[in-house]
């Protein structure tokens, strides 16, 4: 299974423990200051993107030496470093993309990063945004299974399009049947599984599933 782990430079106190996610075929890719987070976790980045204005000139020189294909961009551009890196990752056609360091800090960056998960409809459920407290995934219409994870007790569903049509939740504390969820609704916040495996399905729209710790 080919996995790309993108690590952006969000506040370190929000960063998940990267060592938990390391596996044999994972490719670690830094986004600006995220390169330092990868190295601090004991891993070697395979690539890096950004203007690197948040690291020292000495660190940047070392990075260019260690990574021949380092992608450096000007600070004034039409895309964020995270968007550039995510587009690159999608084009590699991996089985899974993890995005770390993309939440916390500035709300404008956090909201933009969450909407970036909609970059490619065919990759929605392949991209997971992870921080110390939350696992965030986007889904298009379909039927999906959800396994119980005691460390991620709460499960919320939020519409990212004007309407999510026909949402059905089975195996949850608060079940739903063919429900119409509008953008801005808080109906599906803080649900929980009552069985080891539950399912959710919907007919149209895009929603975000957030699994959270206490």
TrEMBL record:
Assigned EC number: 2.7.6.2
Signal peptide as annotated in the record: none
Keyword field: ATP-binding, Kinase, Nucleotide-binding, Transferase
GO molecular function terms listed in the Swiss-Prot or TrEMBL record: thiamine diphosphokinase activity
PANTHER family: THIAMINE PYROPHOSPHOKINASE
Source organism (scientific name): Metabacillus endolithicus
Pfam families: TPK_B1_binding, TPK_catalytic
Name the record gives this protein: Thiamine diphosphokinase
InterPro entries attached to this UniProt entry: Thi_PPkinase, Thiamin_PyroPKinase_B1-bd, TPK, TPK_B1-bd_sf, TPK_catalytic, TPK_catalytic_sf
Source organism, top-level taxon: Bacteria
Domain Thiamin pyrophosphokinase thiamin-binding: 142-208
